[in-house]
Amino acid sequence: GAGVSQSPSNKVTEKGKDVELRCDPISGHTALYWYRQSLGQGLEFLIYFQGNSAPDKSGLPSDRFSAERTGGSVSTLTIQRTQQEDSAVYLCASSGSGPTYNEQFFGPGTRLTVL
Amino acid sequence: GQQVMQIPQYQHVQEGEDFTTYCNSSTTLSNIQWYKQRPGGHPVFLIQLVKSGEVKKQKRLTFQFGEAKKNSSLHITATQTTDVGTYFCAGRNRGSTLGRLYFGRGTQLTVWP
How many angstroms away from the CA of B86 is the closest CA of chain A? Predict the structure, then answer.
């Protein structure tokens, strides 16, 4: 596609439910990143994929959070037993893996609200 | 661990005034990138600086990378209402061209007409 897409754009769930957030990166981009942004706050790094492997998952806040990437393309971020503090915008970004110039292209985000 | 600090957190200016945001890293960086996020939008890449002491300009925006590759700044001359948004710097560890980008907390710019 022309850009990074994410779905759903909005998700409202009840505390304790599981949610899955999807990211479709730009075709050919091997690197994929997940971030979390609370209202008016900065970008909190969650996890980085290179291909299907995740060499850096240091930002996942707890074991309720997990992510996978298949076929070197689509990625899914899963949050189990959601809590109210999980409410935020979840942003996905992808980038190429050239030798020097690897800007990140961000998707529009998924706004998660946990009631 | 790696930290990228950015100041100020907020800046309110009158249209026509200048604006500067500063970024400092606890370690030497291989490069630094700048992003802009409009209210309600997602971050959009502005520029990347790679060389020590590098200065790049985009119209009214001037970006600098420090000699030690540990600090950077973004200066906007004669701000306009279209400059409103949050500006983030982001750096990679020395020797790395892939992997995690360490983002600053951002500077939220408000411009009064």
Answer: 9
Percent of chain A with pLDDT over 70: 96
Q: Residue ranges of the alpha helices (H) in B1-113? A: none
Q: Which residues of B touch A92 (CB under 8 A)?
A: none
Neighboring chain A residues of B21 at a CB cutoff of 8 Å: none
- Interchain pair A91, B98: CB under 8 A: no
Residue closest to B47 by CA, chosen among B38, B59, B39, B57:
B57
Asked if residue A87 lies in contact with residue A80, where contact means CB atoms within 8 angstroms, the answer is no
Q: Whole-angstrom distance between the N-terminal and C-terminal Cα of chain A?
A: 33
What is the separation of C-alpha A6 from the centre of its chain, rounded to a whole number of angstroms? Answer: 9
Q: Return the DSSP state at B87.
A: E
Q: Tell me if A50 sits within 8 A of A63, measured CB to CB.
A: no
Residue range B52-83, pLDDT digits in tens:
999 999 999 999 999 999 999 999 999 999 99
Cβ <8 Å between B42 and A108: yes
DSSP 3-state of B85: strand
Contacts of B33 in chain A (CB under 8 A): 103-104
Residue-wise over A2-36: b if at least 16 C-beta within 10 A, else e?
A: eebbbeeeebebeeeeebebebbbbeebbbbbbbb
